[in-house]
């Protein structure tokens, strides 16, 4: 696999003009991302950005008592640390690998220079930033108003949409962190969803069998996420 081909698996990189892609190509470094890898530390400056080709990233807010909560999921539609990059400020959350896969790394400096010169790229970055912040706001509201079953269904649907696979390699502990609930709650909810026929549970993975059944269970937050990203032209 060559760098000439790899970027097309990330929608943002694929949207670049040929000249902009050529300008960035010398800075692109392919890498594997393993589940749990920390790509950006909370409170740290942004030195490089990560463009998933497969798998997903998670924005996590960390607390002093050791707890954490997920605010957004990032897949092959975009990149890590975007709001901090645009603001030229330290990242206010941790970015870690949620679902393993492949990615491209690009240092901040050449990408910033290109974004300042390429209005089309800057527009795409602003749209993505809006989409991620809207997803985080929707997550905050969802966590307050909706059941753990609805929230887990939303998480699974977002994950398979952005990872491009119906099989999600994830542990109950990971899901507990993502949803901010106890592992026992995750176990109860997973078995409830399994009983509906929507998913099959395996060792350290969840396989979505009947997407329509998950969409029947999920709250309206998922539809808002999906419609917004599509209306912005970020996903099909």
Please supply descriptive tags for the structure shown above.
three-stranded antiparallel sheet; 236 residues; 2 domains; four-stranded antiparallel sheet; Arc Repressor Mutant, subunit A; 10 strands; alpha+beta
The CATH class label of the largest domain is: Mainly Beta
How many domain modules? 2
- Rg result: 17 Å
Largest sheet: 4 strands, antiparallel
Structural class: alpha+beta
Mean pLDDT: 93
Q: Which shape, going by the Cα principal axes?
A: globular
Q: Bin the strand percentage.
A: 15-25%
CATH superfamily of the largest domain: Jelly Rolls
Supply the number of helical segments: 10
CATH architectural grouping of the largest domain: Sandwich
User: Would you report the number of β strands?
Assistant: 10
Work out the helicity level. Answer: 40-55%
Query: N-to-C terminal Cα separation, in Å?
Result: 25 Å
Strand order of the largest sheet: 2-6-4-5
Low-confidence parts lasting 5 or more residues at pLDDT below 50?
A: 1-5
The helix/strand order is HHEEEEEHEEHHHEHHEEHH
**CATH topology of the largest domain, which one?**
Jelly Rolls
